[in-house]
Each structure stands twice: as structure tokens, then as C-alpha cells.
Amino acid sequence: MYFTSVDSPLGPLLLTAGPDGALTSLSVPGQKGGRTVQDDWRHDPAPFRAAREQLAAYFAGDLVEFRLELRAEGTPFRTRVWDALDAVPYGATTTYGEIAARAGAARAAVRAVGGAIGANPLLIVRPCHRVIGADGSLTGYAGGLERKVRLLTLEGAMEGRPAGAPRKAADLGV
């Protein structure tokens, strides 16, 4: 496993990649369930050049879609949920129920969907920050609600909305 740290407006980001160079995780300081460097990991910034460049462009407001090789391991259900997350466009939000429907799960599976979203090992690049409550409330985020607000504000999903209401992907026809 390779790792590096990348400075960001959210604090230092810990990135990991497998031997093939595919990104396996992106964690923020204090993240619930976030990764920590292990003794057998090798520090090497080389496999992360594209990730560093794309993250810098994202935080500068110049990138709306990451194009990185990702390799997160999860159950088939989690993988379906993560694929549904990947379809939520920059600057929009969606609900847990909408993600459940996209993942082929019943609306009653919202708690399981929330668990899969909370287990997302690739914060920011797999946009779990774009998922909000059905009532428009900003619900949990493994990286902390303050970071969620910062990411949604960066993407313009909260800018100029009544009472800070994010823009919903469903309203965009997505």
C-alpha cells in the first residue's frame, strides 16, 4: 500500500493507493472510520500526481468531475450505493431515498444506504457530501458537518438557496 498526504482547505488529506496506483482511500483528519498510516505502508507521492492535481483544481473551483482510477473494496450492495453516489453531479444534492432507488434498494433500506455512504473510503472524490436528508437538512458526514458545508458551498449547492437549502439533483432532472 502506498500513501501520501496532500494539503487542502479541509486540512491534510491522507491518500492511499494499491500497487496498481488506483486510489483506494482519501481521508480527512478526525474522520469517522478514516484511515491511518500503517507501518507496512510505503510513503511515495509518485502514484498520486493526478490526484494531487485534480484535488487542487477542484478546490480552486476549476474541476467539476474527478477522473481518477478508484479501487474501493466493498460488498456488492455498498458498491451499488457508491456507484449511485458517483452519478450525483457537481453542485447538486440528493437524498438517501434517491440513492436507495438508484442503487436498486427499497426506500425502506435508507438506513443500510446511510451505512454504505458512511463507509465510503473515498471522501470528496466519491461525493457522499452531496447526500442530504429528505427534508433538506444537512445530515451526517464522516468528515464532519463543517467540511460538508464547505464542500457544498464550494460547489455552489448552497449558495443563494433559501435558508441554506441545497440544490437537489432531482430538480435538475438527474
Automatic annotation (TrEMBL):
GO MF annotation, one: methylated-DNA-[protein]-cysteine S-methyltransferase activity
Segments forming domain Methylated-DNA-[protein]-cysteine S-methyltransferase DNA binding: 76-157
Domain Methylguanine DNA methyltransferase ribonuclease-like as annotated: residue spans: 1-71
Enzyme active site: 128
Keyword DNA damage on entry: yes
Gene3D superfamilies assigned: Methylated DNA-protein cysteine methyltransferase domain, Winged helix-like DNA-binding domain superfamily/Winged helix DNA-binding domain
Transmembrane segments: none
Gene Ontology terms describing biological process: methylation
Localization terms from the record: Cytoplasm
Further information: This enzyme catalyzes only one turnover and therefore is not strictly catalytic. According to one definition, an enzyme is a biocatalyst that acts repeatedly and over many reaction cycles.
Family: Belongs to the MGMT family.
Protein's name according to its UniProt entry: Methylated-DNA--protein-cysteine methyltransferase
